[in-house]
Amino acid sequence: MDDDKNFDLLLRTTFFVVALEVVEIIESDERALLQDHIKEQQRLCRSLPAEKTRPTWAGFCNRVSDRHFRWQFRMSRHAFDNLCSLFSGSHLVLDYCIK
Q: Any idea what DSSP says for residue 54?
């Protein structure tokens, strides 16, 4: 009877030791997966483009010379303003025309 109790106790102890080792292995694998995931997320966040602050149209016009304006839009400022006034009366309003 004593031998049966000792054997049963030894069997239970061995089972719990093995179960504990299995749990530790699983936790270690999950920890490694989590660290890999965190590194990947950090890499993805670093690769996102930075937010840009764009100037207002008035600020852009004040900063750009007449020559550059004509080169970029292929018309003078006066012609561009006339074009914008044509569009502002219709349902189509361009962002560039809003001052």
A: P
Q: 89: which DSSP letter?
A: T
Distance CA 19, CA 73 (A): 74
Angle value at C-alpha 62, between 56 and 68, nearest 5 degrees: 105
Look-up: residue for tokens 């189509």? 92
User: What domain range includes position 16?
Assistant: 1-48
Based on the domain organization, do 37 and 3 belong to the same domain? yes
Q: Is the pTM of this model over 0.90?
A: no
CA distance 59 to 56: 5
2 & 40 share domain: yes
Provide the angle, in degrees to the nearest 10, between the axes of the packed helices 77-88 and 66-73. Answer: 50
pLDDT tens over the chain, length 99 residues: 678 888 888 999 999 999 999 999 999 999 999 999 999 988 888 877 878 888 888 888 888 899 998 999 899 888 888 887 777 765 555 555 554
Backbone angles phi, psi at 60, to 5 degrees: -65, -45
